[in-house]
Structure formats: C-alpha cells, structure tokens
Amino acid sequence: MTNERRVLVHPDKVSLAGSVAARFITKMLDLLDAQPVVHVVLTGGSMGAAVLEAVAASPARMSIDWTRVHFWWGDERWVPARDTERNDEQSRVALLDDLDLPEGNLHPFPTSDSGLTLDEAAVDYAAELADHGVDGMPHPIFDITFLGVGPDGHIASLFPHRSGIQVTDRTVIVVRDSPKPPPERLSLTRPVINASQRVWLVLAGADKASALGLALAGASRDEVPVAGIKGRRRTVFFVDQDAAAEVPESLIARDY
Ligand SMILES: O=C1O[C@H](COP(=O)(O)O)[C@@H](O)[C@H](O)[C@H]1O
C-alpha cells in the first residue's frame, strides 16, 4: 500500500458526493469488521454536508452498526448550539439526526452558549480528545478524517499565513481572527489531523482549482495549509473536474 497522495476526479458535484458516500459506507463496513469502534472526523463546508446527505440517501447505510461509530469535527464556528453556521449542526441535519446514535458517540466542539469562554472551550475539547486517546497520544487515532478545502487552501480552521497551521504543541487551537466569517472558531491542529489513518479531502468547484494545484505542486503549508496534510495510510483528494483543472495529469485518476 502506498501513502502517496491520490487525486480521484469525478464529473460533477453530485457524482462526487455519491461516490465518496459509497466509498465511505464500504470502508466503514470493512473497518467495523476488523475493530470494535471506528472514529470519524467530519467537516463543514460545501461538500461536507453533500457527502453526508448522499450517505443518508443510500439504503446501504442500514447495514452499518452506527452505535460503534464515534463522530468528531475538524473545526467549529464559535456560535450557539443548533446555529445553522455550526459544522456539527450541518452534519446533524444531513445525516446524524437520522442515525439515532447514543449521545456519547457524538463529540461536537462546545458551543458559544455553553457558558465556557472560547479558551475554556479549547481546553474542554482537548480533554475530550485525550479521554479517547490511544498509544500514549492525547487524541484518538482517527480512522477517516474528512476535510473540505477553502479557495485559499485552508483546511479545518487553519488558514494561510496564520500561526494555526504551524502549531504542534496542542491538539486544539482557538482562532479569533478567521479571514472567513465567523471570526471566532476552534480547530484541530495539523499533528492531530495527520495522525489519522486516512484523510479524505473532498472539494468541488473552479474556485478550489488554484489551491489544489499549488498544494500538489509543492507549495508551503504556510501559503496553502492543505499542502501540509497527509494521513498515515492514505491521503485522497476526491474532486470534481472543475477543482482538478490545475492538477498535473500524472497525479489524476478518473473515477468514471
Ligand atoms: O469554514 C470552513 O470552510 C471549509 C471549506 O468550506 P467550503 O464551503 O469552501 O467547502 C470547511 O472545510 C471548514 O470545515 C469550515 O469550517
């Protein structure tokens, strides 16, 4: 098995979401055959909900024992519970509310109406991660981490030319000046993401082409944060044709 980054191109957003959902279901079945619990990191953004909606629409999802699946988030916007800006809310509406999961399987970041300050919320989430840590690590080893990629190349809430992408001494950071609203956010750090067994980046649209092309051409993670992301076993970019426009042909595998 190679740990090279792979780019799988799909004709459009709908087929992209459907294909990623089908792969996710298949991989979950494989993982649940082999281990008692699976840890998955979800993302917000345009494709995060689209993939989960496609999972929800698939009858094959019924074959998964979701009670053995734990869901985490890569980042969160510092807004109240059930605010539609929240990544966890988007995931709940798209899929999770239908799965009837034990509440203990969901690990959302704290909400701005939780009574915690933003700094306390980061400490709180770091403690939650540590509670599920393995192999002496202060966090779970995620089996699949989904990430979206912004047009500027940001992943989670790690933005270009900001300190967050360089942080290695914490599992969670506070963001107070996000260039994308809302300004206040929480995010996993790069080492936590890169400790994931598989990182699946899902992105669509012509506005993502430049960031993806730069990342694969060797740009620095400071310039294009997604360039600094690599899972332990697999790193796959699931993209549509528009987002693939600046990817070197030699890196492309077409999924159709
Ligand atoms: O703000 C965020 O943006 C990214 C990418 O979003 P997109 O809409 O451009 O696809 C997302 O992955 C991240 O989780 C979110 O908080």
Automatic annotation (TrEMBL):
List residues of the Glucosamine/galactosamine-6-phosphate isomerase domain: 12-235
What pathway does the annotation place this protein in? Carbohydrate degradation; pentose phosphate pathway; D-ribulose 5-phosphate from D-glucose 6-phosphate (oxidative stage): step 2/3
Q: What class of enzyme is it?
A: hydrolase
- For whether the record's keyword set contains Hydrolase, the answer is yes
Recorded superkingdom: Bacteria
Question: Keyword set for this entry?
Answer: Hydrolase
Query: Any idea what job this protein has?
Result: Hydrolysis of 6-phosphogluconolactone to 6-phosphogluconate.
By sequence similarity, the record places it as follows: Belongs to the glucosamine/galactosamine-6-phosphate isomerase family. 6-phosphogluconolactonase subfamily.
* Listed name of the protein: 6-phosphogluconolactonase
Q: Which organism is it from?
A: Agromyces humatus
Per the UniProt record, the lineage of the source organism begins with: Bacteria, Bacillati, Actinomycetota, Actinomycetes, Micrococcales
